[in-house]
Amino acid sequence: MLEADILNYLKGKSACVTGGTGLIGRQVTSLLCDAGADVRVVSLDDIVVDERAEHVKADLTELSTCKDILQGMDLVFHLAGIKGSIDVTINKPASHFVPALMFNTNVLEASRLNKVEKLVYTSSIGAYSSAEVFVEGKNEDGPPMDFYAGWGKRMAEFQIQTYKIQYGMDNYSVVRPCNVYGPGDNFDPDNAMVIPTLMHRIRSGMDPVLVWGDGSAIRDFAFSRDVAIGTIQALYYGTGDSPYLNLGSGEGYSIRELVETLQEVVEFTPFFDTSKPSGFPRRVMDVSLSRERIHFNPQTSLKQGLQETWDWYMQNEDEYKHKQNYFVSE
């Protein structure tokens, strides 16, 4: 959990969490409330994640709105993002790229104008160019893996770098999380990622449960609470001379290992469809710099994280219907 010095720092601070109803945001909100911060959650979702926080429904693509919401804030956790499957981000790139570019620009500029004490921005592993192991400062020569979404994340990172160069604003930090899962994940079957997709298929009674590929692809799955703790640590400590820090589990799991671990949580029979693509063979984050700089130390095992996620899903399987969907046909 959070160190005593960080808890003492957070107590009594006014903190805004954009995207606070999301996967990482709800965990950050809970941790901040536990620490005694005065928290404002900003989202377009019709969801209350913590009764201790103020919940504001607002469109962050409007600069004037952002300036009003962030007035008087000590801390900003800019976690708002648009999460979707590979398919929707490829086929509906404007729905992903354009609003993200707008609200990233506005939140960062409104924070600067309001003289926010500290800010942390959550970028993504998708901002990296393709590689097997991702290390800060490397894999930047080519385009981002998640082409449109990745460029949106990189643009926000560049904006922060310009603030540091022109205004000396070293109080802004950036983290790049890997494949994050947990309570509050997107379980919309039309655009969910691998873990919520599998859970939805199990819950819907699919038998056997379809799994794309042969299960050999290796990914880095990080539990949302661990990433939330790392995000708060990055805000507190800063990233030093690195433009961003990685937040991952520090482990690589094959899709087959993921499926076998999920079978320990809930009974189902998988079917690996080898006619479907398995994806890039290996994508894992190196978190050694985060361990050194911000004392990042993920604690949640894959089984424990899957169990907590499944238990939450059993109680909240329709929550996604109350979330903003950027991919609805216009």
3D architecture notes:
The chain is of the alpha/beta class and 330 residues long. It has eleven helices and 15 strands. The strands form four sheets. It has a seven-stranded parallel β-sheet, with helices on both faces. It has a four-stranded mixed β-sheet with strand order 6-15-10-13. Strand 1, helix 2 and strand 2 form a beta-alpha-beta unit. It is globular and about 55 Å long. It starts with a helix and ends in a 15-residue tail after the last helix. The model has no long low-confidence stretch (mean pLDDT 93).
Q: What's the helix and strand layout?
A:
Blueprint: H1 4-10, E1 14-18, H2 25-34, E2 38-43, E3 54-57, H3 63-69, E4 75-78, H4 86-91, H5 93-113, E5 118-122, E6 133-134, H6 147-167, E7 172-177, E8 179-181, H7 194-203, E9 209-212, E10 218-219, E11 221-223, H8 224-237, E12 245-247, E13 253-254, H9 255-263, E14 270-273, E15 282-285, H10 288-294, H11 302-315
Parallel strand pairs: 1-2, 1-4, 2-3, 4-5, 5-7, 6-15, 7-12, 8-11, 9-14, 10-15
Antiparallel strand pairs: 10-13
Helix pairs in contact: 2-8, 3-5, 5-6
Helix proportion of residues, in percent? Answer: 25-40%
End-to-end gap: 43 Å
Oligomer: single chain
- Biggest sheet character: 7 strands, parallel
Rg, Cα atoms, Å:
19 Å
Extended strand count: 15
Low-confidence stretches: none
- The strand line-up of the biggest sheet is 3-2-1-4-5-7-12
Query: How much beta, percentage-wise?
Result: 15-25%
Q: Which secondary-structure class do the elements indicate?
A: alpha/beta
Shape: globular
Number of helix segments? Answer: 11
Q: Average pLDDT value? A: 93
- What is the H/E string? HEHEEHEHHEEHEEHEEEHEEHEEHH
